[in-house]
Amino acid sequence: MDYLVVGSGLFGSVFAHEARKRGKTVKIIEKRDHRGGNVYCDNIENINVHKYGAHIFHTNDKIIWDYVNQFVEFNRFTNSPIALSKNKLYNLPFNMNTFNQLWGVVKPEEAKKIIEQQSAAFRESEPENLEEQAISLVGKDIFECLIKEYTEKQWGRECKDLPAFIIKRLPVRYTFDNNYFKDKFQGIPVGGYNRLIDALLEGIDVELNVDYFSNKEYYDSRADKVLYTGPIDRFFNYCFGKLDYRSLRFENEIIDTDNFQGNAVVNYIDKEFDFTRIIEHKHFEFGEQEKTVITREYPKEYEEGDEYYYPVNDNKNNRLFSKYKNIPIDPGKYIFGGRLAEYKYYDMHQVIASALKLVSDEFS
Ligand code: FAD
């Protein structure tokens, strides 16, 4: 066989698809009991439930947009999250709707003036912590109403005790525009993400419930080359220690109503709620099912056995990653790619672009 691909996430699936298209023989092995990695959806009450967290496809790159659209049609979903704070709803990202809800202002000039007044004193010196940084960017009211408690839940620490660099920018829009993303293209695959994965993997042998490391030598012997999309530290048997990740916990609930919150994403700002947001999955696809499925999302420290969600790209972990990356391997035998092997947060469009770059390097 030409290629053994370890992992059936977007990176492995795009590469396998393109390799097969070029006449190569490919097989995928996947540790989980399903294909698609983190974009996989469970079908509950006929609703596509994003099992590993809400996934919204967005890109500015027409090539990537055309690429995914050849496999599946995308709907017109636009991410417009809502925040619930002290029993009042606010539009996100911070824009004229939010400012009107906060202060009753109707003109951009009025909003600018308030933010300017509230942040001025904090812009005179270098912010010493996240709280000062956030206030210097958006003023005290927005910080207290929409940032403080949410951020403290996410990090498990007070904003005053968090470093300023965590928040580099807080986009503020002086237009009535609730579209979270600025990208030209955005949507959800009609029928869900599994359809995208099914189309990519058509005709490709995928063996589920197989851990590459259960018999690495055997799997290595079966192919000329191995594309590995799992965690890089695991590949090298954690010889320098483990890379850190942040995790999440999801709690699903089926509710006997056709519409629980009227929006796909509602952020819960207040500390009295342990979770940070509720996702109502049917709204990603304008679903009209009789029931609904919601997911409460709880931030949590990574513990042994948890899923890896976000890499912690601080200095310590980046240095550790560099050590792994510099271990010499035979490039004629092993290729690494994807979010886990590269220890990098990738959006879906970025991971597809990265897989297509590998395709062009490999087959040019
Ligand atoms: P994965 O999807 O993780 O695939 C890797 C696969 O390898 C997994 O299936 C794993 O089981 C398998 N594997 C690992 N080790 C082994 C082994 N030893 N043997 C066999 N198989 C193995 N992107 C967006 O564009 N929009 C969003 O809204 C968005 N939301 C997100 C929300 C969350 C909470 C997270 C964490 C990510 C989000 N993303 C989003 C990013 C998106 O999930 C990634 O871009 C994408 O899943 C990366 O694909 P991948 O193939 O690199 O990794």
From TrEMBL:
The keyword Isomerase applies. SUPFAM superfamilies: FAD-linked reductases, C-terminal domain, Nucleotide-binding domain. Its cofactor is FAD. It is an enzyme of class 5 (isomerase). GO terms for molecular function: flavin adenine dinucleotide binding; UDP-galactopyranose mutase activity. InterPro entries: UDP-GALP_mutase (IPR004379), UDP-GalPyranose_mutase_C (IPR015899). The keyword Isomerase applies. Its EC number is 5.4.99.9. It holds the Pfam family NAD_binding_8. Gene3D superfamilies: NAD(P)-binding Rossmann-like Domain (3.40.50.720). Keywords: FAD, Flavoprotein, Isomerase. GO terms for cellular component: cytosol. Residues 146-345 form the UDP-galactopyranose mutase C-terminal domain. Belongs to the UDP-galactopyranose/dTDP-fucopyranose mutase family. This is UDP-galactopyranose mutase. It comes from Buttiauxella noackiae ATCC 51607.
